Amino acid sequence: MFHYTLRRLMFAVPTLFVISFIIFALLDLAPNDPTGNLPLTIPPEVREQIRMSLGLGEPFHIRYLKWLQQFFVAEPLNFIQQAFGIEIGNSAERVRIRSWATRSPVVDLIVERLPQTLWVVGMSYVVGILIALPVGIISAYRQYSWFDQIGTFVSMVGFSVPTFFTGVVLIVVFSVYLGWFPSIYDTTHRVTDWNSFWIQVRQMVLPVMVLALYNAAQLSRFVRASMLDNLNQDYVRTARAKGMKEKVVLLVHVLRNSLIPVVTVIALGIPTIFSGAIITEQIFRVNGLGQLLIIAIQGADIPLVQTLTFIFAVLIILCNLIADILYGILDPRIRYD
I need a labelling partner for 260 at 20 to 30 A (CA). Which of 85, 109, 221, 242 fits? Predict the structure, then answer.
């Protein structure tokens, strides 16, 4: 397993460089102008000076190499300095990736928005998994029962109906008519005591349930299909013939083998937590990474878009590696060495 993990990490490095080049090239070649949102009264020579100050006068390969140096060297060193107080090199001369719109370091903007995304999108993903696993297991074990029929119907509705429609319906019912939960997420709220914690929970309920329903609908179908495929295998009949308890057969033998394809779906869905739920964040006014990406695209803030997109690519490759490692843990028959 160690050698396989090492080989995958060595393969991931050139893959990330190729992805970084494609992302940088596509966004750099896109028709955009960082001075496009400035007033028309600004003279052309001033606009050109602004473009030069942003580094757009340098050749493509120079800008790409500088971006790599900033992302892989300057930003990690700055993180080490801020997190552990260890200064490596001259921090005053360290050039960081900066937003064209705000001139703030891009990583600082991402770190500022990340907690809001993790509170809402991360919690919804965990809730979705906790709902999907028992629903999928029971639906498969009691195939064609009333529970399976209701679970299938709810899953199809949850997966088919878009999140913006579900979000609006929940706002109308639970915020407008019943008044149970707020319709707007207050990102400035801080948890300091029990009352503030309860306020935080109340404002998280609607966006979390919208995303949890969508995630649970998708995952429960995968769990059910995988469980049904394994329930009819020979090893299940053998285990039952040996007199094993039905709970042991279901939860130890069948579930362990059934989780192998489900792990892929769960692992590949983890990067969506950090990318944020763009539509849902817009509906409930959650100032997360999804909204940050929309603002960056609308304002032609290329450094911010490049950095966010590349971080998502890194997370996808990392989660693929984690899923492959979990295969060997769940299924002893899988050996990589």
Answer: 242
Under 8 Å between Cβ of 175 and 199: no
Q: For residue 33, give the 3-state DSSP assignment.
A: coil
Residues 106-330, CATH architecture: Orthogonal Bundle (1.10)
pLDDT at site 252: 75
Model pLDDT, residue 35: 66
pLDDT by residue (tens digit) across 228-258? 888 777 777 787 787 778 777 787 778 777 8
- CA neighbor of 151 nearest in space, from 249, 89, 250, 219: 219
Can you list the residues of the chain whose pLDDT is less than 50?
Answer: none
Q: Taking phi first (over 0 means left), then psi (-120 to 50 degrees means alpha), and beta for anything else, what does residue 24 get?
A: alpha
Continuous H helices in 59-184: 60-69, 75-84, 106-117, 123-141, 146-160, 163-170
Residue 90: per-residue pLDDT:
67
Q: For residue 9, which of 321, 242, 289 has the smallest C-alpha distance?
A: 321
Q: Dig out the tokens for 122 from the structure.
A: 């991360």
Residues 39 and 323: their CA atoms lie apart, in Å, by 50
What are the CA-CA distances from residue 34 to residues 21, 31, 53, 67, 100 (Å)? Answer: 21, 10, 11, 17, 7
Q: What is the pLDDT of residue 335?
A: 58
User: 3-state DSSP call for residue 42?
Assistant: coil
How far apart are the C-alpha atoms of 104 and 176, rounded to whole Å?
A: 38
pTM: 0.75
What is the model's pLDDT at position 28? 77
pLDDT score at 232: 77
Q: Which residue matches tokens 């792990």?
A: 263
Helices 302-330 and 255-275: crossing angle in degrees, nearest 10, is 170
Domain boundaries, the chain: 16-93, 106-330
Q: What is the DSSP string of 151-206?
A: HHHHHHHHHHS-HHHHHHHHIIIIIIIS--S-SS--TT----SHHHHHHHHHHHHH
Take residue 222 and report the two structure tokens written for it.
């995968």
The pLDDT of residue 17? 86
